[in-house]
Structure formats: C-alpha cells, structure tokens
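Submission sheet (multi-component)
Chains listed below:
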Amino acid sequence: MADKRTSAPSLVLWGCSTSRTLRAHWALAELGLDYEHRPIGPRTGETQTEEFTRLNPRQKIPLLQDGELTLAESAAIVNYVAETYGEPVGLMPAAGTEARARYDQWAFFVMMELDAHTLYVIRKHRDLAYLYGEAPAAIQTASEGFAKQSAVAELELADGREFLLGDRFTGVDILLGSCLDWAVAYGEPIGEQLAAYRDRLNLRPAYVRAAQANFFTRPELLPPSLQDDAASAGSS
Ligand SMILES: N[C@@H](CCC(=O)N[C@@H](CS)C(=O)NCC(=O)O)C(=O)O
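Outcome: structure written.
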C-alpha cells in the first residue's frame, strides 16, 4: 500500500447526526483534513440503498472511504485517521509503547462499556423501542452500568490531567467525549471531572467544526453551547 502520508488524501465520509458519526468528523477536523461529506442519516432508509450497501454490507454509519480503502466502525476510523495522518499532531501514541497500551485499554473500554453495553442499550429500548421492544429493567440496569463505568474515567481525571492520557489530546478523547455528549443528551448524570473535561473538549475549534458538520441536519442535537450559533447561522 502506498504511504498515504506522502500523497494527498482523497477522503469521503458517509454519515451524520449521531455520536458515532461525530467521532469520524472530529478526528478528521483535528487533523485539518479536507473530505467530502455524504450526509446520510440513521433510520432514514439511506443506509439501506443499493449504493451504500455495496460499500457497507453492515448498513451502518459512519463509513470512511480513502482511495481504495472502505472502513466502517467509528473507533477504527478514528484510529486509522490518527495513525495514517496523525503526525505531527500525534493523535495516537506509537505502537509498542506503554502509552499505546493505555490508549487501547481506554478505546476498548469506552466502546464496550460506555457505548455498546450501556448507552446503546438505553437507545435500543427507548428511542428504538418500536424495533427492539420496551425493556424498562434493561434501561435501568444500563443507566446504573453507565454511572458505575463512567466513574472509572472520572477517577482517572481526578489528578487534574487535561486529557485521558495526560496532557496530550488523543483519539480516546474523541471516543470518550462523544459518549459524554450522548450521555448528557440522554439525561444520564456525569461526574464533576467529566463535566469539566467535556466542557474543555467542546471548546476545541476542531470539535466545533465537527459538531457543526455532523449535526447540521439536526441542530437540536448540538451541545447547548453551539445551538445559538446554529440558530443565528440558520436565520441569516
Ligand atoms: N459500532 C458501530 C455502530 C454504528 C451504528 O450502529 N450506527 C448506527 C447509527 S448510530 C446506524 O448506522 N444504524 C443503521 C441505520 O440507522 O440505518 C460504530 O461505532 O461505528
């Protein structure tokens, strides 16, 4: 495979308006990469078209195309972009280092414990109950699970570090930050440290650009700090 760092990237990102799609927009924005956006949304039928199904038989967003490569899974997209185009910003510690082992630990933790096992369970049995069924006990357990697991990240930040791995922003901040936005939108309480950390992340220019690109079809899903901007942009 050609070294993509030496040639101009040709990136197409499919998907908008969810916490998972935000991750891909955010990683690209942190690195200042230009990309074409195909803003297809969830539960609109747009992931079921023949064209999209050919690209992604999972029929899910986000999906990134980079030349010949077609890549699904939001965390894999963040990691791919970080590893391929991340220098000199350094969105991901080098392979084989302790920092990278900690990065991987947090990435898997966030994707499993905060995304898949808790927040998505709430989504399935609340917003998507018409598909997956009402399950108040599952929602309750997932909510408790989110509180318990997110407390681990709260503890990690208690030493005053700015980002999850220390003083450097990395891809795992994108993964955790997007889950915190999701949790807050769902009314799930988050700890004091996590709330302050989320505020810091939401002020990043790359986050603002990514959130505006990701949520332009549904500005009501933007964090409140960005909703005024969206309203004034819409009224101009
Ligand atoms: N684990 C996947 C989950 C992707 C996913 O489930 N995406 C949802 C939207 S958040 C989707 O595309 N659902 C199908 C649809 O809405 O048509 C990731 O992190 O990328």
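Remark: The chain has two domains: 4-85, 98-204.
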